[in-house]
């Protein structure tokens, strides 16, 4: 923090459909109960969209350039703030905080129907139904459990190509 200032992180919401219900793709370290969205910390001065594409490729992309997904980054869905060096994040920056420690921006990521995703060995990719995330702070934390409300402003529709 002393060297670069506020940490900026970006994460992507990847929605898939299972049994015609929207599910969120989350990363889970094998053997833990901790879930997170794919993404991570930006380099100092890095563009948010390009940084998210870089983080998605490093977390979920193939080692073969021809198989790396063409990430289509959509709308920013939320911004969360960490005012101090504690774990708690807020959906706003408290007015008395002049130097927050972290800003986390969450974007929609639009996947094509035949996208190929590669998951590292020690991580599991889990499809969690949106209804399970809703109001489930005790299992998923404030950020993840708020995603169904944040997505309510969008009309989620599954596009089926025959």
From TrEMBL:
Predominant place of localization: nucleus
Keyword rRNA-binding among record annotations: no
Top-rank lineage group of the source organism: Eukaryota
Pfam family, one: NUDIX_2
Location in the cell: Nucleus
Keywords carried by this UniProt record: mRNA processing, Nucleus, RNA-binding
Cited Gene3D superfamilies: Nucleoside Triphosphate Pyrophosphohydrolase (3.90.79.10)
Key word Repeat present: no
Alphabetized InterPro entries for the sequence: Cleav_polyA_spec_factor_su5 (IPR016706), NUDIX_hydrolase-like_dom_sf (IPR015797), NUDIX_hydrolase_dom (IPR000086)
Domain Nudix hydrolase: 6-150
Family classification: Belongs to the Nudix hydrolase family. CPSF5 subfamily.
Protein name: Cleavage and polyadenylation specificity factor subunit 5
Species the sequence originates in: Stylosanthes scabra
Gene designation: CFIS2_6
């Amino acid at each position: 923090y002393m060297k670069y200032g506020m940490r900026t992180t970006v994460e992507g919401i990847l929605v898939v459909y299972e049994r015609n219900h929207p599910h969120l793709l989350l990363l889970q370290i094998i053997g833990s109960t901790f879930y997170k969205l794919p993404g991570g910390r930006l380099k100092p001065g890095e563009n948010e969209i390009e940084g998210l594409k870089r983080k998605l490729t490093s977390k979920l992309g193939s080692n073969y350039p021809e198989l790396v997904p063409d990430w289509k980054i959509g709308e920013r869905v939320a911004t969360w703030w960490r005012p101090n060096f504690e774990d708690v994040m807020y959906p706003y920056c408290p007015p008395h905080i002049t130097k927050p420690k972290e800003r986390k921006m969450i974007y929609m990521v639009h996947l094509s129907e035949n996208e190929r995703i590669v998951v590292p060995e020690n991580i599991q990719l889990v499809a969690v139904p949106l209804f399970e995330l809703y109001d489930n702070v005790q299992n998923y934390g404030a950020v993840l459990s708020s995603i169904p409300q944040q997505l309510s402003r969008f009309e989620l529709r599954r596009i089926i190509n025959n």
